[in-house]
Amino acid sequence: MTxxxxxxxxxxxxxxxxxxxxxxxxxxxxxxxxxxxxxxDSLSLLMILHHLQTYAPVxxxxxxxxxxxxxxxxxxxxxxxxxxxxxxxxxYERQPLMEQARTxxxxxSFCAYCSRMKRGIMYRICREQGxxxxxxxxxxxxxxxxxxxxxxxxxxxxxxxxxxxxxxGDIRIIRPLAYCRERQTADFxxxxxxxxVPDSCPACFSMPTRREYMKALLAREESGHPHLFANIxxxxxxxxxxxxxxxxxxxxxxxxPPPHP
Length: 261
Hints:
This protein is of the alpha/beta class. It has 9 helices and 6 strands, in the order H-E-H-E-H-E-H-H-E-H-E-E-H-H-H. The protein has a single domain, classed as Rossmann fold (3-Layer(aba) Sandwich). Strands 3-2-1-4-6-5 form a 6-stranded mixed sheet, with helices on both faces. Helix 6 packs across helix 9 (228-236).
């Protein structure tokens, strides 16, 4: 008997489908490697892309990579079994990032160091295994927080991009959750019983960060301005990609499969 898995809600599928189409994220024949930390966001994106694979108007391959930073209290070792149950190729890389940070980090936060090291591992696996697209699980809340951090601390109008090509020009990076809110992935992960790893970001268990400050600031502002994030998305949309938008999924096709005749 085939195992059944939770279907993502239409609201998430619709927003991801629209982002994929608006920014030309997925093309026919793409081989996509999804980075899954074990948190609610990347696991939600895993289920969304796995679901889209079954009926999307373009054919694409999907594989998963989890990097275990070998931090006490953080154990994603159960995730490869879950990927296998989904019928997906899964890669699992262990690297003592916190130990490395203590000796190699210079004027950087652990979060930035860890992110940079993880990205290097992801690029390596993409190249070794022939994946041309790297999918990441950041959502609209992350993009808004990054925008404020860049404005406040860097004096630049910048944020994470929804779709771009790496400096070497051999890997496209996509963020299909760019239109989605964090509360949506949290609700889906909880309702679907996804195998979320507790404390999936081990960077700052005991100390507040600039990002946490921006998250709280945005939450306070949103309480009095319900359209805050829609306005932020409208403002940043022109800077979320580089170059022309290629042909990709049609948003109308990326919500639900067509009905059976």
